Structure formats: structure tokens, C-alpha cells
Amino acid sequence: MPIIKAYERRFPTCPQMPIVLDCEIIEDNVFDNGARRDTKRRCKIAVEAPYLIKKIIGVDVVFFIQQNFLDMKTRTLNIEATNESFATRVEIFEKCRYYAHPENPDWTCFDQTATLDIKNFFGIEHSMEKMGMKQYTQTTLKGKEIIEFFVNELKQEGITHVDRWVDDATVTSTTAGTATNTTPPEKPPLCRDNSILDADYIAKYLGQLTPLQESKLVQLRKRFEHGTSEHPEPDYQTLLRFLRARDFSIDKATGMLQESLQWRKEQRIDSILGEYKTPVVVEKYFPGGWHHHDKDGRPLYILRLGTMDVKGLLKSVGEDELLKLTLHICEEGLRLMKDATKLFGKPVWNWCLLVDLDGLSMRHLWRPGVKALLRIIETVEKNYPETMGRVLIVRAPRVFPVLWTIVSTFIDENTRSKFLFFGGPDCMHAEDGIEQYIDTDKIPSFLGGSCNPSIPTVVETIPAKLYTRCFLGACHCTLIHEGGLVPKHLYKSESIEETNGAIQAHDHHGLYKAVDLKPGQLFELLIRNTDPKSVLTWDFEVLKNDTLFAVFHTEKEIEQSGNDDFSSVFDGPDFKEGTNYKKIEQSVKCRPKEGVQGSHEMASTGTYVLQWMCPPSCDGPAQLMYFHEILSSANYKGSMTSLQSGFSSNSLQSR
């Protein structure tokens, strides 16, 4: 019991408790062949009180009697302390206990109680009570620190283990008897694979935990220790994840885990790895897959979100199937984390996600898609807590701050803190780039690395073993599709069915609006702003012929009526550019099948004008679909000033 050896070193004095001036042993008795030892000490304590109080009580030191009762059989140490000085005026009684944890004998538990009864103390009872409580609080906080100090001191001296007490008479008797009596009882099994919950197991599979965290982990396990073949008890890794998600509150973690276990039973999650069949559309067009591991040993999942046809996948397989795909990925992640723990010989209890946003636009926030995304986020955070170790967001376009502002509100605060953003095209070699987190030979070629994780053609169903081989690094290519548009003939329906039977046909026409422009014709969208520091965002797709786009601002009142389609609201005699209106986004020429996304912080009130024009030189009309949104200053937490428009090549034409 190294804790006892460390405890004994604090006498007669220790530097962490300078108020203890001396401790004298006045009685020391050993009983039961060394099994029990009772020690009585008289301790001299400096009075920490204001000078006036010291003058009133007339002393600078007080004496306490401390009695230790050590029982080697039960592996307990009980400590009782009472005051000798002023015993007729004040009664102080403190009791501490060190004992072996009932579930894991390698753990030591500690509890402490104290009472203070001030009967009559020179008329300053209230002041003495406050000082007594303050002193007790300080002593309690230092107790753990002192024990840890002496435990580390023992380690530095090479003492990391102390043999447990054995009764010599019992050993002699056992030797003369059968050999089976010499075998110590087995430690409690950890889980179904008969792992043992001991210090080595904690270090290898769970990681560094404080004694309090370890104790709460075992207490939570007791609440789930009676599993069945249909509903097996969760292992310690699972219990620890749910505890971390609820700040080690046993009651909160219990409620969260009970709900998750019931959900797993209802949804047959324990069978998903063996039963799930990947839809052909997902195999061909879902741009995500497992790819080796990061530098910390976490399994690495790559998602090329910018090239993902959210609408096409949703219309082809449906929201439930995309959720099932996500759950299958999460279950694969749990399995790969266990594989990584065995491979690297250290705890790996979360995975790394790399999200490539090249090609991202506002169309990724198509409302049925957002609805599906929020359902997925909610389900994953409820049932797979603390599985996300790091999220690398690479090649984030200028429109991303807007998307992040909208989406991040639905992501747990602890998870949000794990996001790292890389906005430029060269996320590999930039200062503190992704080379800090992923080995260079594992970085995908589309990010500038030498590893090629993509496949340009249709693949057959991938056996589970192949994912594992790729993760362990035994092959040079992992199976991640490049995405692309899902052909319309694969759609199950042109509409997305909502709950309760309601149907919204061609939902993107509710989000995007279509405009046809003849050569020389203008279309202007007027936005009156009364909320300084709000953010105006836009996203449009040119379907046919070239289009010119610009953004203007004026604080002068605009009357739009009376203007024809070939003149601007600024063509009147009351407007002069540079005087009472200005161009805040320079004109850009947009070609067919180009998407343009942009944002502008509306620093002042007034009217903002989004202007599209079909050049007079065009040989035919231009067609475009546009969307705009305003983020209020109260809801937008980013920092953007006059972001220029960004381009993407995906088209709405086939959607």
C-alpha cells in the first residue's frame, strides 16, 4: 500500500504544511502478528490568526492529539484528531479514512469529515468559527497535494510497489496444504473479453485519470453491470466517454447512457456493421472514407464536403438512409479506435475528421439538407459522445464563415473547440498547416500530399477488412470517391417528403429564385438595412450566357417604381456615384455553370443593391438562379469586412 508509506513521510513535519511545527509519538502499539498498528501523536500547531486575536487568547501555538488506526488485513487507515488546547471552550473533531477501493484493489479511496463546536471563547466565537472553517478548507485542499508529493518522491527513489501484508501463520498453513489455496482471488473482470481492471489496463486502454475520475468510472459501471446477451453491459471505454460528456456526473451520465442503450436496441445498432448494405448511389457519389490515421494514432476520416451533391444524395436515398450511413461510419470508428489502441499500445478513444470544403457554396444549405444534417448531428452527439478528437477544416472558401455561423450553433461547445480551420489553398505547407497533425506521406494528393485516396470510377462493395488494412497502412490507396452530381434518373422522387405527410415539391425553387435577362437588361435586388454590423450573403448560379454582377450602397432613399428593366435605380438625376452612392463590390463577369458566393458586412444603415446585368453584346438571354440571406448582428459572431465574391464550378442546372 504505497499510499500508507507516503502518508508516514509527512511526519514529524512537511514543507507543504508549515503550520505543523512538530509531531511527537506518545504511543505506538502493534497487534495481531503485525496486522494492526495504533499510533498516537501530539502535534504542535502554529496559530494562524490576526495579532489582536493572538493577544486575546494569549498563545502562539496550540496542541492536537492525533490517533492512527492501521489495519493491514482490511487495508484501511483511520485517522482521528482532536484539540488538546482550549478543550473546555472549543471541540474540534476530524476523521479521515484511507481504504482500498472495493472494485479495484489497486485504487485508494479517501474521505474526510470534521466538526467544530465553539462553546465559549473570550467573546469572539463568531470570528473563531470563521477562522476554523477557513483553516479546515485549506487543510482539506492540501491533503491530496501532500500525498501526491510523497508518492512522487517514492517513485524517484525507485519505490513504486509495496508488498501487501501476509499473515506468516497463514502462509505456513497454506504451504502444508493444497496448492490451490495459495492462488489469490481473481480481480473483477472488466467486460466480455475478460480484461482486468487494474493499473496497467487503465494506462493502456483508458489513459490518465485522477483517482476521483477512476472511482466514478467504477461507480457508473456498477449501475450497468447486469447485462444480457441481447443488451450487453457497456465496456469501460464507453462508460468513460459518457462520463466525460457529462463532466463526470454519475447521475447525468447514467441517464444519457440509458437512453442511448435503449436507442441502440430499438435501432439494432449492434448489428449494423454486419447487416448494413451500402447503396450503389452512396458507393459512387458519397465523397468520404477512412484514410490511415493522424500523428496521434487517431483513425482519420476524410469527407470532401465541397464536392458532395447533398440534394442529389438526399433525393436518391432519403434522409433515413443518410443517417444510417453516418451511424455505420461511427460504428466503424469505434472499431478502428480499438484497433488503433492495440496497434499503438496506448489509449485511442476518439478519431480525427478532415473536411475538404473546396467547392462549398450556399447551396449546401438547401433546407431539407440542413434538416437532415441537424438530425444527424443530434443523433451522433447523443449516442457517440467524445468520439471526435480533432476536426481539420481545409480549403475553407470565403463563404464558409457564414455557413459556420449558421451550423455551429447546433454543435456541442466542447466539440466546436476541437475544430481547426485552414482557409488558403495551400493548407499543407502553411505555418502550422496540416503537416503538424498528419504525416506527410498520409496527406491526400488533392491537398498537395503524396497519398492518393480517391477513386474516379465506380467501385464494388468494400469488405470491412479492406477498411482496416487501409487504416493500418498496409496499402497505399484508400477508397474515397471524388463526389460529383447525382444524375436525376437516380432520384427516387422529385420532391422531398416531410413529416406528417406534408410535401414540398422542388424545394430549391423556394430557396433559389430564377431570373431571365435579355441582352442589356438589369435585375436589381434592393435590401434596406436597419441593423448595422449585420451580414448580407448571396449565392447565385449562372445557367445560360454571361452575366455581370456588382453590389452598391446608398444612404439616400430609393424609389424603385417607374424604372424600366433596362435602367438602374441609380440612373436618375438625383444619384451620382461617389457622392451619394458607391460600388462596394467590384463588378465580376460570371460565365455559364459558374456559381458565385459572397458576403458583406453591412457596417451602416441604408439600402444595399445586388445588381445583375446581361451584357448588351450577348447573342441571347441570360438565365440565373439566386439566393440571399441576412444574418443579424446579434446572431453573427464572425469577423468579416467586405469579403469578395468566390467562385465554384458546381451547377444547379442538373438539380
What characteristics describe this protein?
five-stranded mixed sheet; Alpha-D-Glucose-1,6-Bisphosphate, Chain A, domain 4; single chain; alpha+beta; mitochondrion; Helicase, Ruva Protein, domain 3; Phosphatidylinositol Transfer Protein Sec14p; CRAL-TRIO_dom_sf; Protein real-time; 655 residues; six-stranded antiparallel sheet; elongated
What does this structure look like?
Residues about 170-195, about 455-475, about 495-510 and about 635-655 have low confidence and may be disordered. The chain is built from 17 helices and 24 strands. Strand 12 (about 455), helix 16 and strand 13 (about 480) form a beta-alpha-beta unit. The chain has four domains: about 1-155, Alpha-D-Glucose-1,6-Bisphosphate, Chain A, domain 4, CATH 3.30.530; about 200-225 and about 230-265, N-terminal domain of phosphatidylinositol transfer protein sec14p (Helicase, Ruva Protein, domain 3, Orthogonal Bundle), CATH 1.10.8; about 290-455 and about 465-490, 3-Layer(aba) Sandwich (Phosphatidylinositol Transfer Protein Sec14p), CATH 3.40.525; about 515-650, Sandwich (Jelly Rolls), CATH 2.60.120.680. The strands form six sheets. The chain has a six-stranded antiparallel beta sheet. A five-stranded mixed beta sheet has the order 7-8-9-10-11. Strands 16-23-18-21-24 form a five-stranded antiparallel beta sheet. The protein has about 650 residues and is α+β, with helices and mostly antiparallel strands. Its main location: mitochondrion.
